[in-house]
Amino acid sequence: MTVAVALTAAGLGAATTAPASASPAASPVASPETEVTCGTVVTSDLVLTADLVCSGTALVVGADGVRVDLAGHTLRGLDGVGSGIEVGDRDKTTVENGTISGFASGISATGGDAKYSWTRLTVSRTRFTGNAKVRLTSATATIAGTPQDCVLDGLSAVRSTVTVDGCTVHNGVLFDRSRGTIRSSALSGGALRLDGATDGFFGDNVFDGFGVLVQGKSTRNLFAGNTLRNTATAVSVTTSQIPGVTNTFKDNVVRDTNIGFLARDTTGYALWGNRFSTNRSAGVLIDNTGDRPTSEWIADNVFTGNGSRPNGTRDRDGNPVRGGIHVRTVPGARINLARNTGAANTGPLIWAPQGQVVDGGGNQGPCLPVPSDLACG
């Protein structure tokens, strides 16, 4: 059953004073006879007929399988607290077709702790603005639409599986011990952080002023076909990942940053077939201090026009970082380099002191310092 409801003015209703002996009023429950006001518990499918403006939480999902159709209307928070829609641990909730703005959480969903008690949530054609972040814990969620009608103003996912498809994303995105997918989306003005995230896919996106940080033993994440630009460091891999379990960066375009890809004191990454261009200091910087039990691969990448405006970045030995690939590591953590080429870089295409890389062949020069382990063409 779908309930089309009329809303009270401003969604606040009239204020009343209860007798001292009266019990606190319960939150209203939506039904065909009940007007929906702020804090209403929704137990059946709901179609809004007007905007709802609230101090605190607007709607609370009170049953499984509920569909909330905003019907082009807005849930608006007055004071940045509460949730636009509080899903809690209710399952199979759908939210669609409207705007949620000005709450501490646009949508909040928290499943149980048991392995198979996750909350399932679908969000489509919904715009989150005014810092109304989507907050998910132990949830499985799909958030989709077009860049015009699907807008996220921050996303936090803990122990969750989340897909974002075809959306505009602002502010930060966190996947904490989660499996994340972001595809065909435009991300700006924030950062993506993977912290213990596994088996994620990030493809065909534009990261514009939206850096990527991989940390906390994140594993088997694939970044493919993205454009990353206009940030200090496009991708930063820090802290030790799981040896031999790789995060892969493949066929991306990385441009107009200071450092395109930075790996510091870490393992578990591979760079294949990417294009690094017009990065001010360098396309790739590897800066390790300790032994690592595996060697990483950097292969088939193209470097063009990097190093023209270095900002003084130096590796831990004090060497200036400028050009295509800059490696500073230790003999126990050699980096495999193969078939990396480029042109018009200011500085060497590859900087890699002896004993720090393995020559996979096909690398183009110039390669410094000399003598070198690389036979650069």
Key features of this structure:
about 375 residues; mainly beta; 20-stranded parallel sheet; 37 strands; 17-stranded parallel sheet
Can you describe what's shown?
This protein is an all-beta fold and 377 residues long. The chain has no helices and 37 strands. 0% of the residues lie in helices and 48% in strands. The strands form 2 sheets. The chain has a 20-stranded parallel β-sheet that branches. The chain starts with a strand and ends in a 9-residue tail after the last strand. Mean pLDDT is 88; it is low at 1-26.
Topology of helices and strands:
Elements: E1 2-5, E2 40-42, E3 45-48, E4 52-54, E5 59-61, E6 67-69, E7 74-77, E8 83-88, E9 93-101, E10 105-110, E11 119-129, E12 133-137, E13 139-144, E14 151-158, E15 161-165, E16 168-176, E17 179-183, E18 186-195, E19 201-203, E20 206-215, E21 222-224, E22 227-229, E23 233-238, E24 247-250, E25 253-255, E26 259-264, E27 269-272, E28 275-277, E29 282-287, E30 297-299, E31 302-304, E32 323-328, E33 335-338, E34 341-343, E35 350-351, E36 357-359, E37 367-368
Give the structure's gist in a few sentences.
By secondary structure, the protein is mainly beta.
Overall pLDDT level: 88
Q: Work out the helicity level.
A: under 10%
User: What value does the Rg take, in angstroms?
Assistant: 25 Å
In angstroms, what separates the terminal alpha carbons? 71 Å
Instruction: List low-confidence stretches.
Output: 1-26
